[in-house]
Specification:
The chain is of the alpha/beta class and 301 residues long. It has eleven helices and twelve strands. The strands form three sheets. The protein has a seven-stranded parallel sheet with strand order 3-2-1-4-5-6-10, sandwiched between helices. A three-stranded mixed sheet has the order 7-9-11. Strands 8-12 form a two-stranded parallel sheet.
Length: 301
C-alpha cells in the first residue's frame, strides 16, 4: 500500500516509516526541514514538506495514498491546549480528503482517555469525552470524522520510551536534574503505563493492516509503573535524592507536568493484543531509565 505518514522524522513516526518499508509498503512522509527530507529519501521513502500549522499546503498529497498514519504532534507543553486544538484542525483537514473512501486514517491519542473515572484500568472500549486532558480534542474530532464517513482508527499512547526519550517522563527527568531532587506525589503509588517505541511502531502498522474502523487500540506493554519507582531510578541516575510532595505543592514544583504528576495512568492492552496478535518485546521503562545517559539531558526550558 501507499501510506502517508505525518511526523515521519519524529520519535515514533520515523520508526513507523521503517516498519512500513520493511513490510513492503510505499511511504510518503511529512517533514519540516530539508535535512529531514534528505534522510527520509535516503531510507527509501518519499518526502512531503509541510507543517501542522498549514495543513492546506500538503493534504492534497494524501489523494495519491491508500491510507494515513498521523503521528505528528507539537510537544510544546507550555502551549498544550493550543496544540491540541491545532491537532483537531489537522485531523479535520486530513479527513476532508479521505471522506467517503475506504482509506484508513490512524490518529494518535492519550491512554488516559480510556479511563472512566473509577479505579479500573483504562480500556479500549471506553472513551471519556469529559476527560480534562486537552488531548481529548483528537478523539472528539476523530468521532466527527467517523460520522462523516472516514475510516478512523485510534492508537492510544502511554509513555513511549527508549534510552533517549520517555514521553512525558523526559520532562520529568530534566526537571529532576534542574531541581536537584526526583519528586513524587504523596506515597508515589500512582502509575504510568508504558511501551518501548519499537513495539509502538509495530502496533501502528498492525492497526493499518488488520485494524477496524472506529476501534481504539492501547499501545501498552506495561500496565503501570509506580511513580515512586520511576523517581528512585532517576534519582540514582542523577545522583540526587527523592522527595514526597503534597498535592498542593505540585504546581510550584512541576509546572505544567503537575497535571500528570499525581494522576494514575494504568491501562490495559489485553483486547488490543488479542485482536492484532501484538506481543510487545522491547525493554521495560525502568530498564531504559537505568540505561540512559544522564550526562546528556535536554533542558526543560
Amino acid at each position: 500500500m501507499r501510506i502517508f505518514v505525518t511526523g515521519a522524522s519524529g520519535f515514533i513516526g520515523s520508526r513507523v516509516v521503517s516498519e512500513l518499508l520493511a513490510k513492503g509498503h510505499q511511504v510518503t512522509g511529512l517533514v519540516r526541514s530539508d535535512a529531514s527530507a534528505a534522510a527520509l529519501q535516503a531510507s527509501g521513502a518519499n518526502a512531503q514538506r509541510g507543517t501542522l500549522e498549514e495543513p492546506q499546503g500538503w493534504v492534497n498529497a494524501i489523494e495519491a495514498c491508500d491510507g494515513v498514519i498521523h503521528t505528528a504532534f507539537d510537544h510544546d507543553f507550555n502551549h498544550f491546549v493550543a496544540n491540541c486544538e491545532k491537532e483537531r484542525r489537522v485531523i479535520r483537514a486530513i479527513g476532508a480528503v479521505l471522506e467517503g473512501s475506504a482509506r484508513p486514517l490512524i490518529i494518535s491519542s492519550g491512554i488516559g482517555l480510556g479511563h472512566d473515572g473509577g479505579h479500573e484500568l483504562a480500556r479500549e472500549e471506553v472513551f471519556n469525552a469529559a476527560h480534562p486532558n486537552p488531548r481529548v480534542a483528537s478523539e472528539l474530532e476523530g468521532n466527527r470524522q467517523l460520522d462523516a464517513g472516514v475510516d478512523v482508527r485510534v492508537v492510544r499512547l502511554p509513555q513511549v520510551h527508549n534510552t533517549v526519550r520517555q514521553g512525558l517522563l523526559t520532562y520529568y527527568v530534566a526537571l529532576a536534574r534542574e531541581k536537584g531532587v526526583a519528586a513524587f506525589v504523596n506515597d508515589g503509588a500512582n502509575c504510568f503505563s508504558a511501551a518501548h517505541v519499537s513495539d509502538v511502531a509495530k502496533l501502528y502498522v498492525s492497526v493499518l493492516e488488520k485494524g477496524e474502523r472506529g476501534r481504539r487500540y492501547n499501545a501498552v506493554a506495561e500496565q503501570g509503573v509506580a511513580s515512586r519507582q520511576i523517581a528512585e531510578v532517576v534519582a540514582k541516575g542523577l545522583d540526587i535524592s527523592t522527595m514526597s510532595l503534597n498535592p498542593d505543592a505540585c504546581a510550584a514544583h512541576f509546572g505544567w507536568f503537575a497535571m500528570f504528576a499525581g494522576v494514575d495512568l494504568r491501562a490495559s492492552s489485553e483486547w488490543t493484543r488479542r485482536q492484532l496478535d501484538w506481543q510487545p518485546q522491547g525493554p521495560s521503562l525502568l530498564d531504559d531509565l537505568r540505561d540512559m545517559d544522564y550526562s546528556n539531558l535536554a533542558s526543560t526550558g
